[in-house]
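Note to self: keep these together.
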Amino acid sequence: MFAQDEGFASLGKCLADGDLRNAFDVAHTLKGVAGNLGLTPMFNTISDIVEPLRAGTDKDTAENYKKLLDELEFFKKCI
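Structure:
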């Protein structure tokens, strides 16, 4: 299930390790799933992570990752 996807933790580890390429891959996958599930706020936050990574930078990704984790917790409470 999406709320238990290991991708969220994997994304955090990649960002912490400075592994931007793998962070992009994981975030891009999560973005697609969030979009397919119609989780628009989460999709938008992940997009805010994906776009800097696509450009090869981690600008604002740490704060957006924290926001994503908050949204994930909210989503878990709703299901």
